[in-house]
Design brief:
This protein is an alpha+beta fold. It is built from 26 helices and 38 strands.
Length: 836
């Protein structure tokens, strides 16, 4: 939200010269400031001049040699005997007697400042004739895109009370010697009134403890001459429009806006189009209430109806985009077709053009939730939608329309119909005061919450500064809420409002009384932190990505979007689905990192996921799952990437004290369903990780489709840990600190010959189970080699290295052989294997 300090000063009635102090106040009591733009610096040196002489350049068909009068305001430039400055100009519209904007030598072209590449002008020869700077076109002044000629200023272009004087500062005359403060939009989500200059001015007066009075047109009833020269029909046929107002105007001449209006719109981040559209945008920027103008002669039946769209209707928007409407869309229509996507963008067929002579002005209030869904559905986002999204008050419509009609009358437009007003019964009652909005709150509640001792008169003054009136006694204050404050509804809102306007930074600083006993340990967070430390120790980088994803992301990961929960009020069309797993978001980051030259890395993330297939919780509420996932890449891996994932998993489980995990091939139907749910794992190159029979995760490599869909060229492995499942086995398996044994450990290598269809993981599990309950010994088993004489050989020989450690003695040969015999018996009974 861009705020023009000069406009605010005019509205509040006192100077705001200390911009740093103003920004500090806004940051602490209104909203976060994103940027401060000094427009005066941008237009420094730009001077209003009169072209006194204009002659053809002798050596160039398109150039003119001009002499300009700058009132001798610019020093150190050569002048002729009459004090005029020579400027060579290539604009086709330059002529003697015109007023223009001169950028003298040493000044910077404003547009180049905006583009981030400042260009400083100098005196230079053009086809042999010396030119002192240049006269500027609109695009060079960053006032639009027109480069067809230099800006020509007329009396009609001037702000009220200004005059054309040679040498006057362009910025001062046209209100550009100001500062623009850009406040983060998210800070005003609950304050629709703060998306206009009037609302912001009211708040700035309040935080400076000064009383604000709204402009007369914003507080008085609508007054305009009755007219019936143009027939017009208005109807409200949907509950999605709580109020719609419309009026027809004639004797309209569509042309570029006067320069003062163009400057104001550009300063506030808008784009000049024509005088009618610019007036609607200017009023919106001032009041936060969007308006729309239709060409009266293009409305079939001279009718304007707010209604729900019919399924399958089509509409071409102002920007040329064709959309197909649904029954959930609110539209403005004539007797034949939709003419606008209500509250978002008008239709191209009824747009105001240079040929328009009669217009219809609409001021309406629409259901913000319906508009938000329509915008998401069609991918259309506008400044009007931004304001409607916050829930504008329907009670301001007549005041806003009155302001527009005043400005339109100054431009020569004439009211040609009655002002039509269609509204709900609730709006009608509120408009005549039948349902006054009041909040009852006691002064003791305000003071106890804020730690203050404010009197009723002080509270009344604080709230009165922003036009919130207070009546009643100290014990029962009746706060009358003005129509533009849709956020004040309960006593706590009043407490917050008083505290904010008083200044939260001025509240007494006193620590609350609390018990000093430590809070209970959160086992989930403790486990997550241990795993996080394990990832970091291995050199991995943690990411935090959105919980919401695009449908395309799910499909690229091989996941069914129907299994995701959809978000009805998504932030954007790209974030409509709740993620089913963490891996798709991580995989999306692999290619960007590899393009930057990073090839050997691991990315991990902790997060909560939802899936329609998961069991529901109490009352059918979707139950989440806590996951940890990682993606690891190697440009030149030393072996299959599967083993990188296994090594990472082993390290993580070691950190939390688990050492008896097993890795089992994906063989059963249940295992296949689990892998398929993840989408990206190749079943024949993946494994289910179990601890005492409990599935706690999956490791493996990507499917070829996933690699192609995410455009990954490097070898990649992934892992996913179900933290919820891991929690169930972590308590009973977690091990504390154990000191190293002071006795010598013993190692033995054992080769087991088994049938080729007996997997490594089965042999490993059998050996571990045979040794894990041996009293007094700590046992580790590591693979050394797997040998198969030929690809189709019936037998495979797997060699393990078994390390035995005892804390009370050195292992002796007899004990070692007995333990190895246990391993031999186990693999022989289970698989018919033999020891080589």
């Amino acid at each position: 939200m861009k705020v023009n300090v000069a406009v605010i000063e005019r509205l509040v009635g006192f100077p705001l010269t200390n911009i740093d102090s103003l920004v500090t106040k806004i940051n602490s009591q209104l909203g976060g400031v994103e940027e401060v733009i000094n427009l005066a610096d941008r237009y420094r040196g730009a001077t209003i001049v009169k072209v006194v002489e204009c002659e053809k350049h002798p050596d160039a068909d398109r150039l003119h040699i001009t002499k300009i009068d700058d009132g001798r305001s610019v020093l150190d430039v050569p002048r002729d005997e009459n004090g005029l400055v020579q400027v060579v100009c290539g604009a086709p519209n330059v002529h003697a007697g015109m007023w223009a904007i001169w950028l003298p030598p040493g000044s910077t072209v404003p547009a180049s400042i905006v583009e981030g590449d400042p260009f400083v002008l100098g005196a230079r020869k053009l086809r042999g004739v010396l030119s002192q700077g240049m006269m500027a076109a609109a695009d060079e002044l960053a006032l639009g895109s027109d480069h067809g000629g230099i800006v020509e200023i007329t009396e009609d272009d001037l702000p009220e009370g200004a005059a054309l004087v040679p040498g006057a500062s362009f910025a001062e005359v046209f209100g550009l010697n100001t500062t623009i403060i850009d406040i983060e939009n998210k800070m005003f989500t609950h304050r629709p009134d703060l998306f206009g200059q009037v609302g912001v001015a009211r708040e700035i007066a309040g935080i400076f403890n000064r009383s604000f009075v709204s402009p007369e047109w914003y507080s008085s009833a609508l007054q305009c001459d009755l007219a019936h020269s143009l027939p017009l029909t208005l109807a409200r046929n949907t509950d999605g429009a709580s109020r719609v107002m419309a009026v027809a105007l004639e004797k309209v001449t569509v042309e570029p806006s006067p320069l003062w209006l163009q400057c104001q719109i550009v300063a506030l981040g808008g784009k000049p189009i024509n005088n009618i559209v610019d007036l609607t945008n200017y009023v919106m920027l001032m009041t936060a209430q969007p308006l729309h103008a239709y060409d009266y002669d293009k409305l079939a039946g001279h009718t304007l109806v707010a209604r729900q769209a019919q399924e399958g209707e089509s509409l071409t928007l102002l920007d040329g985009k064709d959309i197909v409407l649904t029954a959930d869309d609110i539209v403005m229509a004539d007797t034949e077709k939709p003419v606008g996507l209500a509250g978002i963008m008008g239709g191209k067929d009824t747009a105001v053009t240079d040929d328009t002579t009669r217009v219809v002005i609409e001021v309406a209030t629409f259901d913000m939730f319906a508009l938000r869904k329509s915008a998401m559905r069609h991918g259309v986002f506008t400044d009007a939608l931004t304001r409607y999204n916050k829930g504008q008050s329907p009670l301001q419509n007549e005041h806003v329309l009155q302001y527009f009609l005043q400005l339109a009358a100054d431009a020569g437009a004439v009211i040609a119909s009655p002002v039509y007003d269609a509204m709900t019964s609730d709006v009608a009652d509120a408009r005549v005061g039948k349902r006054p909005r009041q909040v009852i709150v006691g002064g003791d509640i305000i003071n106890s919450r804020l730690g203050l001792e404010l009197s009723r008169s002080a509270i009344k003054q604080i709230l009165g500064n922003v036009e919130v009136t207070v009546a009643g006694s100290d014990e029962r204050m009746v706060v009358h809420v003005p129509f533009w404050r849709t956020d004040l509804a309960i006593p706590e809102d009043i407490v917050e409002e008083v505290g904010r306007l008083y200044g939260f930074n001025l509240l007494p600083r006193q620590l609350p009384q609390r018990r000093i006993s430590p809070p209970p340990v959160n086992r989930l967070r403790q486990l997550q932190q241990l795993l996080r430390q394990g990832f970091v120790r291995s050199g991995a980088n943690e990411l935090v990505t959105y919980s919401f994803v695009h449908q395309n992301t799910l499909e690229r990961a091989g996941q069914d979007p129907a299994h995701s929960f959809t978000i009805s009020n998504a932030l954007s069309p790209d974030l409509q689905y709740y993620r089913q797993t963490l891996l798709p978001n991580l995989l999306e980051k692999v290619r960007p990192n590899s393009k930057e030259g990073y090839h050997d890395f691991t990315l991990f993330e902790f997060g909560r996921v939802y899936n329609q297939q998961y069991p529901r919780g109490e009352k059918g509420v979707p139950a989440p799952r806590e996951l940890a996932s990682a993606v690891m890449t190697q440009k030149k891996p030393d072996g299959a990437m599967f083993y990188y994932a296994r090594q990472q998993m082993d390290e993580l489980l070691t950190v939390i004290g688990i050492e008896n995990q097993t890795y089992e091939a994906v063989s059963s139907e249940a295992d296949k369903a689990l892998v398929q749910q993840q989408g990206v794992f190749a079943p024949d190159r993946s494994a289910i990780v179990r601890v005492k029979g409990t599935e706690i995760g999956i490791i493996g490599e990507l499917t070829a489709a996933a690699r192609d869909n995410f455009r990954i060229q490097m070898p990649v492995a992934t892992l996913t840990i179900d933290i919820s499942a891991l929690m169930s086995v972590w308590h009973e398996n977690a091990q504390g600190y154990t000191p190293l044994s002071k006795y010598q450990w013993a190692q033995r290598d054992i080769s087991i010959k088994a049938a080729a269809d007996v997997s490594y993981s089965k042999l490993y599990s059998a050996a571990m189970q045979a040794l894990q309950n041996v009293v007094g010994y700590h046992v580790t088993i590591e693979p050394l080699s797997i040998y198969q004489a030929s690809y189709d050989a019936a037998d495979v020989t797997t060699t393990f290295r078994i390390t035995l450690t005892h804390h009370d003695k050195t292992p002796v040969k007899k004990d070692i052989e007995a333990l190895l015999e246990q391993v031999s018996d186990a693999v022989s009974k289970q698989f018919g294997a033999s020891i080589e």
